[in-house]
Design brief:
Helix content is 20%, strand content 32%. By secondary structure, the protein is an alpha+beta fold. Bound molecules: zinc ion (2 copies). One zinc ion is lined by residues 171-172, 179-180, 184-185.
Length: 418
């Protein structure tokens, strides 16, 4: 696993969680690009190649991993390519994409490197171990599509590499991997999403990261800032970060780079990754019903409300994102009560059963008692604005200019070479 704070002087191996215990996956299908070039290693023996079985089914039975085709039953198993070749890969059917979001679905994805399966509290877990640069060949085009211009793909690759190596969040360390394969960390849908363009952008930026002083930048990013980015400390706990400060995302005429005026909605569809929701992401409206908000308060805060009276933003960040929201409501005894909702994440979680686009919204109460949220942007808005960066690349800006804009005071540097 990556060591926090360490700047690697050669390409490191990374561990990516593909199946998490919370996914509750009981069975998957695995197939191989070439059955003779992989070995299965278990605790006490290895099964060199498995001719005649180009597809294996892996199930959880009574706390064990079971492969009926190989009469295999154990709690740990590794599938290892026996020769190093770029065209060797393993395909898994039944991986979750969009975990926990309303666009969650099961996909089939192919992976370079080693696949490790184990059982954690009776649940299946899978980890993909591979060289970082191979992982990066897949990330830019899992996050966005391969149709994006090269300067954008290079930017996204450097940002993904920097964020990963800065290794600040470490959300999954207790499970034994560096990052997961989804929006919680970085979206990674395997090598099937690679294209000539994404491979080129990884090769062209090999080992390049953005740095501030002597540390790799914790390069946060989100889909659309809505016209101005947010300060780090308004979204996460901790001190301000000098390169994660609010900047305007507009051209000389004041037009936002992430707006449909620069990236038209129609063409955006071809640039956005294939599991994303299509829709009005830059400016949007959403009308949660009284019932939905009452249910949300009950499910998420165990509050029994009978009517929501007011949604009152109490603290708003530079980008317009609400950081503290007060909700006034009537309880079951008809008392007037209030609850304060802190963090943009929790506000988005409360406002919509399927997670609101962003917390940058204003509130209007309708005659029918429902609230109309008029919002902008998609995501937390800190650091790189992906659609804004795309707009800049489409307008001829270079990778270096784009990075300088969203991460002021950072420096682009190559920390290892091939
Ligand atoms: Zn994660
Ligand atoms: Zn933007």
């Amino acid at each position: 696993m990556l060591t926090p704070g360490l700047i690697p002087n050669k390409e490191p191996m990374i561990r990516v969680g593909l199946i998490l215990p919370e996914d509750n996956i009981h069975s998957i299908q695995i197939s191989f690009s070439d059955t003779q070039c992989f070995e299965i290693e278990t605790i006490d023996r290895s099964h060199p190649s498995f001719e005649n079985s180009d597809q294996l089914s892996l199930r959880i039975v009574d706390g064990n991993l079971v492969i009926p085709e190989l009469k295999f039953k154990d709690t740990v198993l590794k599938i290892i390519p026996s020769i190093s070749q770029d065209d060797l890969f393993i395909t898994i059917d039944g991986i979750l994409a969009g975990r926990g979001f309303h666009w969650e679905k099961k996909i089939s994805a192919s992976y370079w490197g080693i696949l490790e399966f184990c059982v954690s509290n009776g649940k299946m877990m899978a980890v993909n171990e591979l060289p970082l640069e191979y992982y990066l060949k897949c990330v830019a085009t899992s996050e966005m599509s391969a149709q994006c211009p090269p300067e954008f793909l290079k930017t996204q690759t450097i940002v993904a590499r920097s964020w990963l190596l800065a290794n600040i969040e470490q959300k999954h360390r207790h499970l034994g991997f560096d990052i997961c394969n989804d929006d919680c960390c970085q979206r990674y849908q395997g090598m099937g999403n690679c294209s000539e363009a994404s491979i080129k952008s990884a090769e062209a930026t090999f080992g390049k990261v953005i740095m501030f002083e002597d540390k790799i930048c914790d390069a946060r990013y989100s889909k659309s800032c809505g016209g101005i980015t947010e300060n780090f400390e308004n979204v996460w706990e901790g001190d301000p970060v000098p390169y994660l400060i609010s900047v305007e995302d507009v051209d000389s005429k004041g037009t936002a780079f992430c707006s449909p005026d620069i990236v038209p909605e129609e063409s955006l569809k071809s640039f956005i990754g294939n599991v994303d929701e299509k829709g009005q992401y830059f400016l949007w409206t959403f009308e949660p019903t009284q019932d939905e908000l009452i249910r949300s308060l009950k499910n998420k805060h165990k509050i029994e409300a009978t009517e929501i009276l007011q949604l009152k933003p109490e603290k708003i960040g530079n980008s317009g994102r609400i950081i503290d929201l007060r909700i006034d409501y009537k309880d079951i005894q008809n008392n007037l009560k209030s609850i304060a909702i802190h963090t943009e994440y929790e506000i988005r979680n409360i406002m919509s059963p399927s997670f609101l686009f962003s917390s940058a919204f204003s509130v209007k109460k309708n005659e029918n008692g429902n609230f109309n949220l008029i919002g902008k942007g998609w995501g937390h808005g800190v650091g790189l604005c992906q659609i804004g960066a795309l707009g800049r690349a489409l307008n001829g800006q270079s990778t270096e200019n784009i990075l300088n804009h969203y991460y002021p005071v950072s420096k682009l540097k190559r920390i290892y070479s091939s």
